[in-house]
Design brief:
alpha/beta, 12-stranded parallel beta sheet, 8 helices, F-box_dom-containing, signal, FBD domain-containing protein, LRR_FXL15/At3g58940/PEG3-like, FBD
Length: about 375
């Protein structure tokens, strides 16, 4: 594509003249060091733009540029420097959806926008240094589950509209709220709480001591969560003694678990003892829970059968639980570790909870309801 820059610039000028509204511009084949033509930024009529496998132009060169009608922007495997993405967001006054896929090693995002509703960052190659969002309603940060030894700092400054936050990983994410880094054993103060978040999704390796020690600290920052969705990560070498006593002694009471959570989803359940210990603690502690959905891992990838995994939950001492609630089971038929997240799901605003594996739909004309499986 490098030798065809002149032709590409001409094509973009023609598109600008025709008032194009939606554009997908991908540089194939690689490398992605080919600079993105600055002519692209003359397409002021765009409402939806996706670019892939390019080198982003210097943000300093974008003076006077704006996308007055752009509502959705996607960057896939685009080489950027600090400030590049922030500059485009600042120049897009009605932008609602920002999707980023690919490498952001050592980069910081500070997204200040009054219009931005959904930010999804899926770093499948490397990880970013930090992300700070302001005024977004949904923040979804996905890491490559196969990467190890990497850590992303997720910083949330002024986020008065944030309602949905995912996938927070105690083993991979350092959470910073305001100027405070959330650490185990630190009691959450009002300045460390995101009180607007109603839906929280966690990706947890319950067999690793340092990971689960972060869970109470993380949960304490979201006192008004009503829907908690947990994905259990596979653990090859679990830490010993991660039993119910561990949770009762070290986790202690978690305010939002006791008072607020109405729906809990536990995905990729394998029937391991460390998973059951958490479920016992959760079920004994929660008072508002109406429904728990246990999604069994695909039996093709586990050492236990479907019946064995279900029995391990059913045989828990229900009488000791703090409240009555419905437990639903379903068996995953997908790949180990679940299918990759899709931007379309996260940005579907008509779905108030895109992480719910089962939704309760009222039956027409009566007071009963029926369960509907949404996606695997």
């Amino acid at each position: 594509m490098g030798e065809r820059q002149a032709a590409l610039k001409l094509w973009l000028r023609l598109l600008a003249a025709k008032g194009v509204q939606e554009l997908v511009l991908v540089n194939r084949p690689w490398p992605r060091e080919v600079p993105l033509p600055s002519t692209l930024f003359t397409l002021s009529t765009l409402t939806r733009l996706y670019i892939g496998v390019w080198k982003f132009p210097d943000a300093a060169g974008l003076r006077g540029v704006s996308f007055p009608h752009l509502r959705e922007l996607g960057l896939c495997l685009v080489e950027v420097e600090n400030g590049d993405i922030d500059a485009v967001v600042a120049r897009s006054p009605v932008l609602e959806i920002l999707n980023i896929q690919g490498s952001l090693r050592g980069k910081c995002l500070r997204l200040v926008s009054q219009s931005l509703r959904c930010v999804q960052v899926c770093t499948s190659v490397t990880v970013m240094e930090s992300t700070e969002v302001v005024n977004a309603e949904r923040l979804i940060v996905c890491e490559d589950m196969n990467l190890s030894g990497v850590c992303t700092r997720v910083k949330i400054g002024n986020a008065p509209k944030l309602k949905l936050f995912a996938y927070l990983e105690p083993g991979k994410h350092t959470l910073e709220i305001g100027d405070t880094v959330i650490m185990p054993g630190v009691e959450a103060s009002p300045s460390m709480m995101l009180t607007t978040v109603k839906i929280l999704s966690l990706h947890v390796c319950f067999g690793v001591h340092k990971d689960i020690k972060m869970m109470p600290a993380f949960l304490g920052c979201f006192p008004n969560v009503e829907s908690l969705h947990i994905t259990s990560a596979k653990c090859d070498q679990p830490t010993d003694k991660l039993n119910l006593k561990f949770w009762e002694d070290e986790a202690g009471p978690i305010v939002n678990v006791l008072l607020r959570i109405r729906v809990m989803t536990f995905r990729e359940f394998r029937g391991e003892q460390y998973e059951l210990s958490f479920l016992r603690y959760f079920f004994k502690s929660t008072y508002a829970l109406n429904q728990a959905v246990i999604s069994l891992a695909n039996p093709s990838f586990t050492s236990r059968s479907e019946d064995e995994m279900i029995s391990s939950v059913v045989n828990m001492r229900i009488g000791n639980f703090a409240s009555e609630f419905e437990v639903l089971f379903y068996v995953s038929t997908g790949p180990e570790g679940l299918s990759r997240w899709t931007f379309k799901r996260g940005a579907k605003f008509s779905d108030d909870d895109p992480f719910a594996t089962v939704k309760i739909i009222p039956r027409p004309g009566d007071q009963t309801s029926q369960a509907c499986k949404c996606h695997n």
